[in-house]
Structures are given as structure tokens and as C-alpha cells.
Amino acid sequence: MNNDPVKEYKALVRKPRHDEALQLLKRLASQVKPVLLKHNWTIKNLVEFFPTNPNLLGMNTNRGWKVNLRLRPHYDETQFLEYEDILGTLLHEMAHIVRGPHDEHFYKLLDELKQETELLMASGYRGDGFFSDGHLLGFQSVPRYMSSGIAAKAAEKRLQTSKIMLPTGGIRLGGGSSTIKHMTPAQAAARAAQKRQLDKVWCGGSVVEQDSSSEGDASSAPVTPPAVPSSPSDNVTRKRKLSSNIPAEMDTRSKKQSLETSVIDLTTTTTTIEKDGWACTTCTFINGPITLACQICFTERPHDDDATVVDVSDDFWSCPQCTLKNEKKWTACVACQFVQLR
């Protein structure tokens, strides 16, 4: 159709159930068609990919010229991911058509796209033409991912995890503004920072290629997964090097105090650790000195040689990532930008 905002579809022909994967791509495109038309967006190629990075779920190249979606779990290429999970990835990549970085403007647009799509689904819209509710298929012809039972289970899962109702009674995926209203500024900043970090893991982002006219076979399309994170020891070394980079706007006294207290004796004895307590390496919660497991996430306490010493003084707080001691007036670490929840 000439008004179809998605022009071409490509599934991996060498993977099992290739025909079902192609129909899944078309069903996803049909579901978001009204949203694409409303914003006057087009997707030239909607392509299935199966990257070696198991965390990579989607990628947008040249602002919608090609959108890659992972349809299958990395551990079993004969199965498909949940339909609504793939749909959420598609909406995320659609937001990259007009906004590249994962910033405040991007997430505002993404929330709008989610709301528009969920309102369509709540009204009964499941796509047009072949994918609309007016067409009934034989039981044997319905793929597993299109089964009504699977759709009902996904809807129930969304209801249990979301718990945030729209004014019309619909359910909003991914959280909503009502949650943010009850957060402190520090908590809201931490939530946004955590969300950006997670998106960097599974989203390939908005990629710009100089030559966008060539079209290759989907099964051999080049994939550029995000760089593999460095080892924890490399991160610690790099972050400790940054511990001396105090912002220039700090006054002389604050700078002097921070530099004097930012040096931590790596030979700290167990007595000091037991006196001050220890910070969980998973959730950063400050536990009591005699606690053997984190009281929040139940992570086992690290050995004394690896434990993080926590300064419980009233004037400073110790960053659990880079160990820099920051003044209480800073809500984020001045060295590694870790956001402290208060």
C-alpha cells in the first residue's frame, strides 16, 4: 500500500520459522501504523537481526532508514520473544527517528508513543487488514506468538507489573508521571540515570551511516553491538584516577577538604570496617558493621579486603563506586557522577 509507513520487511531466512518471523514483523508494523502516520514518520526497512551480543534488542540506522529488531531469545533461535516486549523495543527505536540521545526529550517522546499505542490496543485495535480482529484464522494456522492465550498472559503480566492507570482506564507501560511526582529530586535523577544506563545496554541507539542506499540480505546485515564493558578492576582504576577532578566552581575551602578526605588507605583493617559499617556492592545500601548480608538485596558481604569503607560523618558521604568522599551538599559524586538517593 502506498500509505504504508513501513516500506519493506526482512526476516532472517537462515533461521527456523522464517515465515512466522516475517509475519511477526508485519504484525508489529501494522500495530504501530496509526502512530507512524500521526507523526508523519516512515521506516524504510524493518529488519530482524540476531546479534551476538545477547543484551542487544534493537537498533535504528539513519533515523528510520533501517530499524533492526531482535525477535528471538539469544538462547533459543527456534522461539520468539513476547510480542509486547518486541513492540516496546520497536516504540523505543521509533523515538530514535527524531531524537538520538537517551535524554529527557527522548523519554518524553517515548512515553507519548507508548500512551498512543496502548490507547489503540485498549480500544481493540490490533492492526489493520489481515491482522485486525475481524479475521479469524484456523487454529492450526495461528503461530504460538499470535495465540490468544499468549496475548492474555502478556496482558496479565503487564497489569501486574505496571499498576499505573491512565485516565481512560488503560495501562501505561514503563511507568508514568504519577510515580515521579512522589520522588525527591535526587530519586528522580537517579531513576533517569539508571534508565539511561539500562538503555545503553540493550539499545544500539541511533546509528548514522554515510552510505544508506545499499541494501544487503537480512541474514548477513552488519551489526554493531555496543562495546563490551570493561572489567570491574579496570573501572575501579579509571574511576580512582578521576577522583582528583573536582569541579572548578567549588570554593577553595571545599576543594581542600575534599582532596584531604578523598584519599583512602587501602590497608584499612577489619576494625575500621566494623566500626563504620559497609556498603553493599550491588545496591549501595549502608549495612551495619556486623551484618553478613545486605539487608535490602541479601547480597553476601564481601571479604574484608574488598569491603567498601563507609564514612558516616555528618559532613561527607562516600561514593560506593569510586570511593570519593563528597560533601553533603552534592547529590551526585563529583568524580564519577554516581547519584546518591536520599
Low-confidence runs of at least 5 consecutive residues: 134-142, 161-181, 210-250, 258-275
Number of contiguous helices: 9
Instruction: Give the total of beta strands.
Output: 9
Strand % is 5-15%
- CA gyration radius, whole angstroms: 24 Å
End-to-end distance? 54 Å
> How would you characterize the largest beta sheet?
5 strands, mixed
Task: Kindly report the average pLDDT value.
Answer: 70
- The run of helices and strands is EHEEEHHHHHEHHHEEEE
Decide which structural class fits the backbone: alpha/beta
The helical percent reads 25-40%
Rough outline: elongated
Oligomerization: single chain
Strand order of the largest sheet: 1-2-4-3-5
